[in-house]
Amino acid sequence: MNGFGFSQRALIIFTAGALLAGCGQMQPPASAPQGEPNGFNGSSWVRANAKTGSLLYVSDGSTSVYVYSYPQLKLTSTLKGFSQPLGECVNKNGDVWIANFGAQEMDEYAHGSTKRMATLKTDTDHTPYGCSVNPKTNDLAVSTWRGGSGPGYLSIYKQSKGTPKTYSDSAFVYALFPGYDGKGNVFLDGLATGSAFRYAELPSGKTKLVAVSLKQSIGYPGEVQFDGKYVTVGDQTARAIYRTTGGKVDGKTTLGGSGTLYGYFIAGKTVFGVDTYGLGVYNYPGGGSPTNSVSIAHPSDVVLSAK
Questions:
Q1: Are 233 and 220 in contact (CB under 8 A)?
Q2: Chain-centre distance of CA 91, in angstroms?
Q3: How far apart are alpha carbons 5 and 304 in whole angstroms?
Q4: DSSP state of 49
Q5: Which one, of 261, 252, 283, 303, lies nearest residue 132 by Cα?
Q6: CA pair distance 50, 123, nearest whole angstrom
Q7: 233/298 Cα distance (integer angstroms)
Q8: What is the mean pLDDT of residues 66-83?
């Protein structure tokens, strides 16, 4: 850990070899069914009727993605076979995209399914970290980077297919979280040289990332997501979600608890957050203490596939 508050995702990436060799496979959630013991390393599985109702997808940064029913928070399935699954995003049909960091690919799953619908490869020099889907065009925005050896990219897959167009900003050492607003603009946060916060916008129809000066100190950059009115920008170390217009901060939501807020997902008047200790459900924009929670080992990100 340095003073800038490196997230669990960064630690996973930078120390992946030592982590897997020294600690073994990361453990499944404490709420895993009796049929899936600790250290389980089998195939993906799914409960009967798991496709009905809304589902929360939680990546663990190691090999698995856990799927919970919502609002029950009951583990309904486990998706296996990943190599460091990190960021997640969902399209208007409820299909979930997962940034399979170690495999250098994006993997798509239909709501409640354990079978991959599609796989999109990133180029050999860049690995995917976070993603966002334009709800109007189904374009897929993916942040990719080279572990500090080159500028971070924003890659746009037209209609979530084919070969992406890439947009780079030499000031980004790590491009972390992209997010579409309601007009097709993409916002991207990450780190610049010296671990300084970096924030930029790719305006709809344009070909260049434009720096945005966010009038707010950010300890460590978190998710970027449109809440229906504002583009929200997260601060993992402060457990805060800032509602922004351009570079102006219009409001703040603080999620109660302790530990680093690795990822969040806003759905109407609810926000789901994953931190050092697991998954929490909070009121939005009120924040405060969670209204419900479940213990999960090493969560990395969360999205809701609503039905």
A1: no
A2: 14
A3: 27
A4: T
A5: 303
A6: 34
A7: 22
A8: 96
